[in-house]
Amino acid sequence: MKKALVISGGGSKGAFAGGVAQYLMKEENKEYDIYIGTSTGSLMVSHLALGRLNDLKKIYTNVNQKSIFSNNPFKIKKIAGEKVISIRHLNTLWNFINGRKTFGESKNLRNLIKRKITQEMYTEIREKNKEVVVTVSNLTTNQIEYKSINDCTYADFCDWIWGSCNYVPFMSVLEKDNCQYADGGFGSLVPIREAILRGATEIDAIILETEVTQINRLPAKNPFSLLFDVFDFMLTHVERHNITIGKLAAKNKGIKLNLYYTPTILTTNSLVFDEILMRKWWKSGYQYAKTKREALMSEFRPDILTDKETNCTEKTDLT
After folding, report:
1. What's the mean per-residue pLDDT of the chain?
2. Can you tell me the distance from the alpha carbon of 163 to that of 153, in angstroms, rounded to the nearest whole number?
3. In contact, 87 and 153? CB cutoff 8 Å
4. Which of 20, 32, 44, 46 could disulfide-link 285, Cβ–Cβ 3.0 to 4.6 Å?
C-alpha cells in the first residue's frame, strides 16, 4: 500500500500548501511513499519527504522578490492601499538587448534551490527510498516529463526543480540536453494521474486554487496584463482537466483521493512574493486542513467528538 502527496503549482500560494502539509504530517501523522510536485510544489517535496517542515516554513515565510528574480520584470506599487502590478519596461528591454528569451530572469531562485536543497538532503532521500518527483514541460518535444530523484544526479535534480518553477516568459527558461524546459504547470498542474501510475493507493492532493471560480477579471489595460489573463485562463482549464482525469483514474482503480483546495482566492498574481502574506497563508492552510478534518469527523463519527471538538467545529466552519 503506497500513499502519495501531490502538490499543484501556484507560486507564492505554496505557503498555503505548506500549512496543509504541516497539519497532515504532524497532527494526522501521515507518512507518504511518493511526493510529486509541480512548480512551487516541486520546491516543497524534498523537505516534506524528510519531514523538515520547520525548515520549509522558514523558506516560504521569508522569501521575497529578490530571492526569486535576478532581473525582476514586475513593478509593485500601492494605489489607494491596494497593490497594483505593472511591468518594469527598462528591465525587460535590458533582457532583450542582451539576447535573452524572457522578460525576466530567475537565477536567484536557482541559487536558492542549491542552498536550501543540499547534497546531504538528496542523499538522505535516496537512502530512505522515498520517491520524490518533479514535473517539467519540455517545450522542444512538446511533452510533459516527470523527473524522479532516483533517476537523477544531484545537479540534475536541482535543475529540474528550477525548470519546473520557471513561469516563462516572465522567468528564465531551462536549456538542458538540447531542449528547452519551463513550468510543469503548463501541461500538468495537478499530477494526480502520475501518482496513480507510480502505484499510489491513497492520495492527498493539495490544489492551490478554489474549487469553484470566484472571480471575474477586470479588462486588461496593457499587453502584459492581457498575457497574464491568457495564461491564467489556460492554466485554469489545465487544472480542471488534470483533476477530472485524476478523479476518473482513482475511481476506476478504487484509490482513495483526498482533495484540498484553497477556500478563498489568495492572490491574483502568484509571482508576487510577499513575506507577510505568505506567513498568513501558511497559518490559513494549517487551519483549513484542521477544519476540514473536524468536519469529516463530525459527519462520519459524531459519537466520538468531545464537547471541545464540537465547539471548535462550530466556530471554524463558516460554510
Report:
1. 89
2. 15
3. no
4. 20
Which residues make beta-bridge pairs with 105? 71
Q: Is 123 exposed, middle or buried (0-12, 13-18, 19+ CB in 10 A)?
A: exposed
Q: What are phi and psi of 285, to 5 degrees?
A: -65, -45
Longest dimension (CA), the chain: 68
Which residue type occupies 96?
F
Cell 542549491 sits on residue: 114
Cβ(38)–Cβ(188) under 8 Å? yes
pLDDT digits (tens, 9 = 90+) for 166-184: 999 999 999 999 999 999 9
- Strand-pairing partners, residue 181, are 138, 174
Show the cell assigned to 73.
Answer: 520584470
- Element of type H or E holding 6: strand 3-7
169 upstream amide cis, omega within 30 of 0: yes
On the CB side of 119, CA atoms within 13 Å amount to: 2
Q: Which three cell numbers stand for residue 95?
A: 533582457
Give the number of other Cβ atoms within 10 Å of residue 55's Cβ. Answer: 13
Mean per-residue pLDDT for 272-290?
94
Q: State the Cα–Cα distance between residues 152 and 159, nearest whole angstrom.
A: 10
Taking CA atoms, 186 is separated from 134, 204, 221, in Å, by: 13, 21, 24
Nearest to 187 by CA among 211, 205, 206, 163: 163
**What's the rounded Cα separation, in Å, for the pair 48 and 156?**
20
CB distance 309 to 293 below 8 Å:
no
C-alpha cell at 8: 499543484
CA distances from 83 to 73, 76, 97, 272, 274 (A): 16, 6, 29, 10, 11
